[in-house]
């Protein structure tokens, strides 16, 4: 068993905050420059990117590209790391000596993987599409399912 030292833990937390703040602040600067000249009602459950971009009368192509890059880097990157870690876990489970231990470990992992599939699946459906022709009805349905199931 490896013990994570307090200093390493602090560095990881600070790095996560700095990277998250930096990536979010770039998007906030782009969002603050949007002009809105039409209706001011968002037909969604919350103020999400797609409905907000569609209300804007400014050019939102840079924001769509920034969101696609952000999603590719953050969401798909973290998903790849999680899947690699689960492959290592499955490798360890398969080498367990007792069948009951393997069954219990697979049962635990399966519930985690279902949760991951719901969270990442809905996130990919909502945000990983680079197209500007996003159906708001699809977004509302996926957001509702994500809220109810998650």
TrEMBL record:
The chain crosses the membrane at residues 12-30, 69-93, 105-128. It is a multi-pass membrane protein. It comes from the Eukaryota. Keywords: Cell membrane, G-protein coupled receptor, Membrane, Olfaction, Receptor, Sensory transduction, Transducer, Transmembrane, Transmembrane helix. It holds the Pfam family 7tm_4. One of its GO terms (cellular component) is plasma membrane. GO terms for molecular function: G protein-coupled receptor activity; olfactory receptor activity. The keyword Transmembrane helix applies. This is Olfactory receptor. It comes from Dromaius novaehollandiae.
């Amino acid at each position: 068993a490896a013990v994570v030292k307090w200093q390493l833990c602090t560095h990881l937390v600070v790095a996560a905050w700095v990277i998250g703040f930096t990536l979010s602040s770039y998007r906030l600067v782009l969002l603050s420059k949007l002009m809105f000249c039409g209706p001011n009602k968002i037909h969604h459950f919350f103020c999400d990117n797609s409905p907000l971009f569609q209300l804007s009368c400014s050019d939102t192509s840079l924001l769509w590209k920034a969101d696609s890059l952000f999603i590719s880097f953050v969401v798909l990157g973290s998903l790849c790391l999680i899947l690699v870690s689960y492959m290592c876990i499955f490798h360890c489970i398969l080498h367990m000596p007792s069948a009951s231990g393997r069954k219990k470990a697979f049962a635990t992992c399966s519930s985690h993987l279902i949760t991951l599939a719901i969270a990442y699946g809905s996130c990919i459906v909502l945000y990983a599409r680079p197209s500007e022709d996003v159906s708001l009805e699809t977004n509302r349905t996926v957001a509702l399912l994500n809220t109810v199931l998650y």
